[in-house]
Write a structure and sequence with these properties.
The complex is a heterodimer of chains A (284) and B (771). Chain A contains eleven helices and 14 strands. With 284 residues, chain A is α+β, with helices and mostly antiparallel strands. Chain A has three domains: 50 residues, Uridine Diphospho-n-acetylenolpyruvylglucosamine Reductase, domain 2 (2-Layer Sandwich), CATH 3.30.43; 111 residues, Uridine Diphospho-n-acetylenolpyruvylglucosamine Reductase, domain 3 (2-Layer Sandwich); 103 residues, CO dehydrogenase flavoprotein, C-terminal domain (Enolase-like, domain 1). In chain A, the strands form four sheets. Chain A has a five-stranded antiparallel β-sheet with strand order 4-5-10-6-7. The termini of chain A are far apart. Chain B folds into three domains: 129 residues, Aldehyde oxidase/xanthine dehydrogenase, molybdopterin binding domain (Aldehyde Oxidoreductase, domain 4); 189 residues, Aldehyde oxidase/xanthine dehydrogenase, molybdopterin binding domain (Aldehyde Oxidoreductase, domain 4, 2-Layer Sandwich); 328 residues, Aldehyde oxidase/xanthine dehydrogenase, molybdopterin binding domain (Aldehyde Oxidoreductase, domain 4, 2-Layer Sandwich). Chain B contains 20 helices and 28 strands. In chain B, helix 8 runs parallel beside helix 18. The longest helix of chain B is centred in the last third of the chain and has 22 residues. Classes of the chains: A alpha+beta (284), B alpha+beta (771). The interface between A and B is medium-sized, with 29 and 31 residues.
Chain lengths: 284, 771
């Protein structure tokens, strides 16, 4: 333990309303849910924010609700909750898969979907699947709620649209992917307990050999979880041919900006992203 | 006779297994002494420089702290290993990042952490080197120089010669050259380094997680200027070591003892994972260059091998690591002529140290990759090349040692290839690979590993073991050989029980405490089963002789009769104790100057086969299946032996394709489990462990050492298989996906590599016939 816990405060108001009031009153508060990110930072002495407010155990946030048109996942749903949910396994298998890749079993028992999104790591495991499923995100604060496309949530490296006092309330997944071809692949440093060097998630609706709908999203391709709009635009409305696949790789390579870091290199990430895209397109 | 079934060779339960499984085994951080405080280390954050000032920052109640610098060392400022160049605490010149400069102690661990961060070291930087190439460059700054070294920046050199290698080049059909290199590797024991020290008028006592209590015992005598009877070292339950707790406990042990002396209270020092990874020893990075003369029918005519290792900033154990790497560089092959030049160089990295295999995995990696290049160049299979050059009984090793045991490497190779389905798989992969994005391959390595200290090392160690009967009439083994997960306790008790003809559960083994156990040598070098095991067998015989001479024990007896006789003996004589001291076998000769003779009393021999798959979309190589066949003399405990091999193979897989130390100016940048990628069970294949037994006269019941052997073979077998799969040569481990990508995605890099010689163009010196 490289931090002195006496330098930190943690409050646990016990209800969502009380948490939102506290956040409204003190914008310095940092929410902590499962703690799988913040406790690691605390352990290595790198947790800069000293006033924490606990979301752990808030029933208002921990739910998975099936509605006719959408599946709603509370921000407090854990990855274990997601892995065990029959509707997700049936209709959103990419998310069930990415939840299973997130950290260890212990991490999955503690870690929450909202935490994974709010932490806003470009390498996060679950955002690409949410983006490929055209998710919306619902935010809540003491003054009200707003819902926006999840694609508009991430603004930059560890930057999101979340305002002071605002929490992620839920993710909405439209239940209309039964006919879509779906793909996700994570290239990590090892097969488990690994951070993604790159990942690609994709959904596409093919009709009479033409791409009628396509969503591509990735991890560690740019400074945030990202939809690959330029590559999607190229592919939309076309039949997959060898020439188109080559063009798609070129467009993808030009719209991503991965980095060299301790885990991999930018040129490797670009090449593998193009290979994964090609693997998906070949399967269509 | 009581023990009808054999105890040796049976899967006796791990001696301390119940305590570990039920959680009542006490590791160092479980121990709390009255008045105990905590210690921490202020380290250099730069690779090399002259300290100009040490500043203690504001906001810390410094008067509450115990502060130790080199000035507080009562004896010599050294951590003694082979030389005394390694200071206990920096006096003036820092030679590597993370070098200990100031020690602090305080009851409050969290405050201690802040205090460490509040100390600033001011310094004038000095030029530094970080790799073998930088260290040996003609214009390199001299970072280490001593009368003991052979030349500036060189800790040690060896020259090993057999025959007259200069005569072979003119007549060789092929001369094949290759360069191979290996990276550092972290031991990654589960439990970090940790100790507790106490100091009083009576002397200094250190409890700790360690392999070699008598190494620390020696280090304390020098650092404190105390006679040996005033120093005491006790090994507590140790959570893994792999060599990483051979020499380093001498450092942390002396540090804690200095703080204990100055504070007057017991001091606990336990590193966290980041500090342990950044500051303690790792496997030596290496470079091996081969130049080999081969006949057109694939016979090794002669070779030159240049072997170099990066020792880090101080000598520590590097000469010994270099020695083992040098001797194993020739492998299990017949070399009519051979010259090996080896050197350990200085760099401004933290000192590299012992790690399972101890230099052998490095040079064996080079040789076994090179053997596949030779086969390819000559145009025969890797299998055929090895069959034509294997050592045979009656042959001599590269050091001139006569092979007396009836080993059969050809038979072992046949068995390993059959068990793994090698030939069928090669044929299948050749068919399926061209159309598949997943390229599969199968490759192997053949090798041996010497058991015990090299050459005359065991003579110098002069190991002693004792067996003493306790008040319940049960024999207790007294040795300094330590248990750290590998099974020392269990196998030694099995050997004693079998020899004494009593039950396994009636034998005890003492906690290693230098006040109580004799020095049976360090727990290293694959020596415990063979050397110490034999001494336990001898001591058991001596105990029986003593009891029979007294007339209290018949020729045959039951365990109950043994117990009664032992207690009766104790009543008459006060104690019942027998010892055995190492005696070098009469027919073992070693010449340290010429590096010639019987390098080890015995070798374990092995053939390891790896099956891999390389995904050309992600450039990731995975080991899909693994076969480990080894001849070990005698399997003392099949469960523990299998575990040793499985664990060693897993560690070898990590060494081959996962575990990379990322260095930035001598600092390990990825000193966290998140970014230092050790394989998990999800990355490991089925590991098929196969044994053969050709009993050796040097070990108990024929046993030889197996501790290090399984680390030697996986890396070359895996890279050989990757070449089979991809058709591309890779000569460095660890081999990461980014490295595979660099070559597969850049065909120009492949053709520019001079080792990509095809048979038709190989053989720069050439005797006349085309292959």
């Amino acid at each position: 333990m490289r931090s002195d816990v006496r330098d930190y405060t943690l409050t646990a108001p016990g209800s969502l309303d009380a948490v939102l009031s506290a956040l409204a009153a003190n914008p310095r508060l940092t929410p902590i849910a499962g703690g799988t990110e913040l406790m690691v930072a605390l352990g290595v002495g790198r947790l800069g924010r000293h006033e924490l407010i606990s979301l752990d155990g808030l029933k208002e946030l921990r739910f998975i609700e099936e509605r006719p048109e959408t599946l709603i996942l509370g921000a407090g749903a854990t990855f274990t909750d997601i892995r065990r949910n029959a509707a997700i396994a049936r209709e959103f298998p990419l998310l069930a898969q990415t939840a299973s890749w997130t950290g260890s079993i212990a991490n999955q028992n503690r870690g929450t979907l909202g935490g994974n999104i709010a932490n806003a790591s470009p390498a996060a495991d679950n955002p690409p699947a949410l983006l490929a499923y055209d998710a919306s995100i619902e935010l809540v604060s003491a003054t009200g709620r707003r819902t926006l496309p999840y694609d508009e949530f991430h603004l930059g490296y560890k930057k999101t649209v979340l305002q002071p006092g605002e929490l992620i309330y839920a993710i909405h997944l439209p239940r209309r992917f039964a006919q879509h071809r779906q793909y996700v692949r994570k290239v990590g440093t090892r097969n488990a307990q690994a951070i993604a060097k790159i990942a690609l998630a994709a959904t596409a609706l093919i009709d009479e050999a033409m791409v009628r709908e396509i969503r591509l999203a990735g991890a560690s391709l740019i400074d945030r979880p990202v939809r690959l709009h330029a590559t999607e635009a190229l592919l939309l409305g076309k039949a997959i041919t060898p020439e188109l696949r080559t063009q798609a790789a070129a467009v993808l390579a030009s719209e991503i900006k991965p980095i060299d870091d301790i885990r991999s290199t930018a040129k490797y990430r670009i090449a593998v992203a193009c290979n994964l895209l090609d693997e998906f397109l070949l399967s269509l | 006779m009581a023990a009808k079934e054999s105890i040796v060779g049976s899967p006796a339960l791990r001696y301390e297994g119940e305590a570990k499984v039920l959680g009542y085994a006490k590791y160092i951080d479980d121990l709390h002494f009255p008045q105990m405080i905590h210690g921490a280390t202020v380290r250099s954050k730069f690779p090399r420089g002259r300290i100009t000032a040490i500043r203690y920052g504001e906001g810390i109640p410094w008067d509450e702290f115990t502060i130790v610098t080199w000035k507080d060392i009562p004896g010599e400022n050294t951590i003694v290993h082979l030389l005394k160049d390694h200071p206990c605490l920096v006096q003036e010149i820092v030679n590597h990042p993370e070098e200990p400069i100031v020690l602090l102690a305080h009851p409050d661990k969290a405050l201690l952490r802040k205090a460490v961060d509040a100390v600033t070291i001011e310094y004038e930087p000095l030029p530094a080197v970080f790799t073998i190439e930088e260290s040996e460059a003609p214009d390199a700054p001299v970072i280490w120089n001593s009368e003991a070294g052979d030349s500036p920046n060189v800790f040690k050199t060896y020259l090993m010669e057999k025959g007259h290698v200069e005569d072979v080049w003119a007549t060789a059909d092929y001369i094949i050259e290759g360069e191979y290199s290996t990276g550092a590797q972290e031991q990654f024991y589960i439990e970090n380094n940790g100790v507790i020290a106490e100091y009083s008028e009576q002397g200094v006592t250190v409890w700790g997680s360690m392999q070699c209590p008598y190494y620390l015992h020696h280090a304390l005598q020098l650092a404190f200027g105390l006679p040996e009877q005033k120093c005491r070292v006790i090994q507590v339950e140790t959570g893994g070591a792999f060599g990483g707790k051979e020499d380093y406990p001498s450092v942390i042990g002396c540090h804690a003892a200095l703080l204990a002396m100055k504070s007057g209270r017991p001091v606990k020092m336990v590193y966290d994972r980041m500090e342990d990874m950044a500051a303690t020893t790792k496997r030596h990075p290496s470079r091996t260059r081969h130049r080999t003369a081969v006949s057109k029918d694939g016979k090794l005519l002669g070779g030159e091998i240049e072997f170099a290792i990066d020792g880090g900033a101080y000598v520590t154990l590097s000469p010994v690591v270099l020695s083992r790497g040098t001797i194993h560089a020739a492998g299990p092959y017949n070399w009519p002529h051979l010259r090996i030049r080896a050197k350990a160089v200085a760099t401004n990295c933290p000192p590299h140290g012992a790690f399972r295999g101890f230099g052998a995995p490095q040079s064996i990696f080079g040789l076994e990759r090179h053997m596949d290049l030779i086969a390819k160049t000559v145009g025969i299979t890797p299998e055929e090349l090895r069959r034509r050059n294997f050592l045979q009984p009656g042959g001599t090793t590269a050091t001139g040692q006569l092979i007396k045991d009836p080993i059969d490497l050809n038979g072992m190779l046949t068995r390993a290839l059959e068990e793994s389905g090698y030939h069928a798989k090669r044929a299948e992969f050749a068919k399926t690979n061209p159309t598949s994005p997943i390229k599969r391959g199968i490759g192997f390595a053949t090798f041996m590993h010497g058991a015990g200290f090299t050459g005359s090392g065991e003579r110098r160690l002069n190991s002693l073991v004792a067996i003493e009967v306790d008040d319940e009439g049960k024999p207790e083994i007294l040795v300094s050989s330590t248990e750290f997960g590998q099974g020392t306790n269990t196998i030694l008790c099995q050997v004693a029980a079998q020899t004494l003809h009593i039950s396994y559960k009636d034998v005890r083994i003492a906690q290693p405490d230098t006040d109580r156990v004799p020095n049976s040598g360090p727990t290293v070098a694959s020596r415990t089963a063979m050397i110490v095991g034999k001494l336990v067998e001898d001591a058991s015989h001596n105990l029986l002789t003593c009891m029979r001479a007294s007339g209290l024990l018949e020729e045959t007896y039951t365990p109950e009769q043994f117990c009664h006789a032992a207690l009766a003996y104790k009543q008459q004589h006060g104690e019942l104790r027998a010892t055995a001291r190492y005696q070098a076998p009469d027919d073992i000769f070693w010449d340290d100057d010429k590096y010639h003779g019987d390098a080890y009393p015995a070798y374990a021999w092995a053939v390891y086969v790896a099956e891999v798959a390389v995904d050309t979309r992600t450039y990731m190589a995975e080991v899909k299946n693994f076969w480990a066949l080894q001849e070990v003399g005698k399997v003392l405990n099949p469960v523990l032996a299998k575990g040793q091999v499985e664990g060693g193979v897993a560690q070898g897989i990590g060494y081959a394709i996962y575990e990379k130390c990322v260095w930035k100016d001598g600092v390990m940048a990825n000193n966290q489990m998140t970014n230092y990628i050790m394989p998990t069970s999800a990355d490991l294949p089925p590991i098929h462990v196969l044994f053969e037994e050709v009993p050796s006269i040097h070990g108990p019941f024929g046993a030889k050492g197996i501790g290090e052997l399984p680390m030697d073979g996986p890396a070359p077998a895996i890279l050989n298989a990757i070449e089979e799969a991809t058709g591309v040569r890779f000569n460095h481990c660890p081999l990461l996906p980014e490295d595979i990508f660099d070559k597969l995605a850049n065909p120009t890099l492949i053709s520019a590599d001079s080792s990509q010689l095809q048979p038709a163009v190989a053989g720069p010196v050439f005797s006349g016939t085309t292959p």
